[in-house]
Task: inverse folding
């Protein structure tokens, strides 16, 4: 039922995009995932992001290990500690939990280091691909370009409208 509703909404939206007064719209399809995988700079940037992400995850895992050690020590020694000592250790545990949370936000949050690094490495490549798509579209007099890598509504694509290889040629990767 949801898919029928989705395609009905898509059809209605597309009918507003496509003029009804007889003009032929030229449509093309690209696969940005395919294009980006063929761009060496993108693959290098992705590898750098993966390496950085693993490094950040390692730091967070080390902090989590420290937290676990603090929790285990408290549980093991709790019967021997005074209320004040228990409170101090619980505060240390809470401080470590906050440190983990802050570190996760610092690295993986919406304005975190990984996001900033991704933006600095990937965005210029994506912009280059987008500009090439626009240029090829203008040259071929294409009115609408769909991305089959991100558009779940693309169920079939004829080779006649697939221009991903043209984009790679424009970028100099074919």
Result:
């Amino acid at each position: 039922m949801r898919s029928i509703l989705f395609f009905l909404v898509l059809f209605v939206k597309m009918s507003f995009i496509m003029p009804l007064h007889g003009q032929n719209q030229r449509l093309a399809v690209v696969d940005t995932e395919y294009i980006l995988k063929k761009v060496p700079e993108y693959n290098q940037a992705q590898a750098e992001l993966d390496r950085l992400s693993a490094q950040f995850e390692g730091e967070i895992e080390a902090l989590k290990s420290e937290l676990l050690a603090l929790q285990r020590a408290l549980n093991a020694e709790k019967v021997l500690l005074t209320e004040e000592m228990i409170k101090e250790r619980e505060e240390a545990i809470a401080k470590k939990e906050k440190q983990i949370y802050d570190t996760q936000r610092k690295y993986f949050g919406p304005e975190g280091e990984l996001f900033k690094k991704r933006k600095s490495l990937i965005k210029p490549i994506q912009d280059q691909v987008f500009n090439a798509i626009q240029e090829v579209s203008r040259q071929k007099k294409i009115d609408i370009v769909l991305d089959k890598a991100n558009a779940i509504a693309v169920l079939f694509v004829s080779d006649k409208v697939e221009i991903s290889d043209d984009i790679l040629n424009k970028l100099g990767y074919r």
Observations:
- The beta strands are 27-30, 144-147.
- The first helix runs from residue 2 to 17.
- The longest strand covers residues 27-30.
- Residues 45 and 105 are 22 Å apart (CA to CA).
